[in-house]
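just leaving the lab so this will be short. what follows is a protein written twice so to speak, once as letters and once as structure tokens for the fold. can you read through it and tell me how you think this chain folds. thanks a lot i owe you, the record is right below.

___
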Amino acid sequence: MACLTDLINLNLSDTTEKIIAEYIWIGGSGMDLRSKARTLSGPVTDPSKLPKWNYDGSSTGQAPGEDSEVILYPQAIFKDPFRKGNNILVMCDCYTPAGEPIPTNKRYNAAKIFSSPEVAAEEPWYGIEQEYTLLQKDTKWPLGWPVGGFPGPQGPYYCSIGADKSFGRDIVDSHYKACLYAGINISGINGEVMPGQWEFQVGPSVGISAGDQVWVARYILERITEIAGVVVTFDPKPIPGDWNGAGAHTNYSTKSMRNDGGYEVIKSAIEKLKLRHKEHIAAYGEGNERRLTGRHETADINTFSWGVANRGASVRVGRETEQNGKGYFEDRRPASNMDPYVVTSMIAETTIVWKP
């Protein structure tokens, strides 16, 4: 008799050309990922060759019951690390039957910004540092913490090893390899300052692909934690008090910044970000005011600041960028629950298109 694991690991290509495509979309809260699967007649590598699909938007908070159909437009394809073979994950965005983007479709506007000639010519690169916290399923308390109690103070946990300091490494490494398998440009992982908290980095990625890759990396992480019986939270301050919050620091450069003389372009871009500080903060994630306090490696939410090698600033410029006179900068304000479509496109729009 076959075991359940044998059946899950069946290689479909032994018996059929058909593949399974898992269509992924963002639900009504703006953070809840949803997905469902369909059978296709054969392998597909071009999203434009995939059929559109639909779902019940009244069950995701995205449409009324009397007119509940929402249409999925396939936008990006990744290899499926769970089903393997020729099976795929498909990142979609959401439209009305009339072809209008629904209000929670943030990808549509981001794609418009990235495809504008002015922005496309600058080839914006992004590296996004996605922090998250692993929680015990039944108590919603961080992994490795004593139930109802607290571990020792921060200090020993960042990039740590050992059963008394590092919690959840099997999940983190599984996620790392699964993302590489899927074709996501994940560039690294590390344990974070608060025990039970981790980070993965996606990038460098260009334009709209940065958002697609971060969302699918989040999807893969949630699927892996589901298997492990652990909960992942992207809350920017999951534990109040003297514990680090969770952010999504966004590293950014344009062609002009990467070329000789780029440091002056960087300083000019940072000045523009300063002038639109409030608008950016409003779009950088829910609950960020609990994280951006001026403590725990953050700048105060109400004050814009920047500096070289300063992790307490809103925007940090690397020492190497200053020395080379070109390079990139890091916007440290986005919360861990930010929408990467919104943040990446807004930074591009402010620094390239917007004229103060």
About this structure: The chain has a mean pLDDT of 96. The longest helix spans residues 208-228. The radius of gyration is 21 Å. The longest strand covers residues 125-136.
